[in-house]
Sequence to fold (203 residues):
Amino acid sequence: MAVYPYYKVPAKPKPVYKPWILARLGYKKTHKVTASFPSLIDSGADSCFCSEDVAIWLGVEFLKKDKFFEFTAANGTKFKTRKKILTLYVAGKNYDCDFYISSELPRQTPIILGQYGFFDKFQITFNQQEEFIEVV
Amino acid sequence: MKMKAVDLTKTLQDFKSGWVALNKDHEVIKTASTFKKIATEVENDKRLNQSEIILLPASDDYFGFIT
Fold:
């Protein structure tokens, strides 16, 4: 078991607490690995998501034959993604994980860790009042 | 068990856009307009311990997200 702190960040009218966990992403074909991102732990996301600019930096190639997968945000907005396998380094583990890559993620959340790929690997307990997240 | 949240409110107050790189003490050590620039700068700076660096899109307002 490990516990990770919430992040308190600027917001209007008052600061907001984010369930972020530090994670790194790697791409086996290029052997590139990012520095750490505060990544959003999002129980409402079906899968894991990564912004396109991060994937491009890792050297991920997008091909014409790549299939597009459409997702719907909570406000009903649809956005397109392409699925790639990245290595996720998080909570003391690293493993290959399907990431849905999109140029349409909110700028403030370039990495989203969702049900497939994160919640199915760990038991997560949010405790915002005590300002920590427990990951088992 | 109370754990103190990582408070970035002061750290980020002067950065409204682009990207920042933070050290292990959560101090801003680099800024850049794009992810490509900040990631490459961090990667090429051999004085840095890569595993301790945090990359974060800067904003003065992280409120307003639903998923």
Observations:
- Residues 19-57 of chain B form one domain.
- Strands of chain B lie at 6-7, 19-22, 28-32, 54-57.
- The helical segments of chain B are 35-44.
